[in-house]
Amino acid sequence: MTGAPFPIVRRQVAIDFEPVPPGPWFPAGGALEIMFNAASLSFPPTERFFIAAVRDYQDRISDQGLREQVQGFIYQEAMHNKVHLDCNAMLARHYPNCRRAEQISITTFRRLGRLPRWFRLSLSSALEHFTSMVADTLLHHPDDFRTIVPPEIADMWLWHAAEETEHKSVCFDVHQAVLGAGLLSYGNRLAGMLVATPLFLFVMLLWVAMVLKRGRPRSAVPVPQKPSTTDGAGRFLGRNMLGLLRHGVPWRLYFSYYRPSFHPWDHDNSGLIAVWKERYPDFGAGLRSPTT
Predict the structure, then answer these.
(1) Is the separation of the CB atoms in 165 and 273 below 8 Å?
(2) Average pLDDT for 134-151
(3) What's 120's DSSP letter?
(4) Cis-peptide, bond into residue 151, ω within 30° of zero
(5) pLDDT in tens, 127-137
(6) Residue 162 in contact with residue 139, Cβ under 8 Å?
(7) How far apart are CA 50 and CA 125, in angstroms?
(8) Torsion of CA 89, 81, 21, 204, to 10 degrees
């Protein structure tokens, strides 16, 4: 399969994060909350990096369908940037080390922006594969996720997951369109993933998360949770950061990226987006979606 199986929707999203209480968000807290907060702090510079990577090659894309998908991709990533900045402003009120953690990602992607544009595109394609894998997990378990985080946070992440899935092949398709499908292109794609893997795991998540954890106020110590193993929410709770990465990322999909014939839509999870759209048909009108 090549290209997305449906149009990339331009949604205008506004979420009011004012009602979100200071952490820990009972009963989440701990590693789950810190890791998602670390991801939110990392996303704005990451998304700007993605936008620049595809814009660099816009004039070399001849396929009209892909050009339209690139425009939709840029719009969605710009909206993610805006909403995560709003979320991060809320986090800054709750975490003393928030701005320091945020600066790690800003500095990292500012330096990565000096790389050759062909490698920035490869790196963007690989990082988009990571975000689409995590999105796949969330979209498979939306109700479990909603039971353990505030509704505003659940709305943001499930919307983000849906759009990450909608546009998951755009960077990859641009890479194929402008660099071809030969050996050099394949080598560039693999090199991008070999850099993206430690970047995603140890900079975007673990390093930023540890800075946040060290800065957590003493009054915000998570209440210990022992979820039942039969409880659906148990897949998210009661784990440390490494356990969350182990159980929250479909690693079979990760390794599929190394196949020469790989395409992101080989794993066709468009049905998950259809379910999300059916459940929240009005999301994207500038108002937070209902949570019931």
Answers:
(1) yes
(2) 91
(3) H
(4) no
(5) 999 999 999 99
(6) yes
(7) 8
(8) -90
Question: If you average pLDDT over each of 41-45, 50-54, 249-253, which comes out highest?
Answer: 50-54
Dig out the tokens for 226 from the structure.
């022992």
Please give the Cα distance from 160 to 163 (Å, whole number): 5
**Which residue matches tokens 């500038």?**
286
Contact present, 201 and 248 (Cβ < 8 Å): no
Buried b (16+ CB within 10 A) or exposed e, 39-77: bbbbbbbbbbbbbbbbeebeeebeeeebeebbebbbbbb
Cis amide bond preceding 198, omega within 30: no
0.85 exceeded by the pTM? Answer: yes
Residue 200's identity, in one-letter code, is F
Q: Specify which residues 285 forms β-bridges with.
A: 12
Q: How many CA atoms lie within 13 A of 37 on its CB side?
A: 34
- Per-residue model confidence as pLDDT tens digits over 229-262: 445 666 666 566 676 777 767 889 999 999 999 9
Q: For residue 54, give the nearest of 160, 170, 161 by alpha carbon.
A: 170
Residue 124 belongs to what H/E stretch?
helix 117-140
- Residue 124 token pair: 């963007």
**Closest C-alpha among 161, 135, 142 to residue 80:** 161
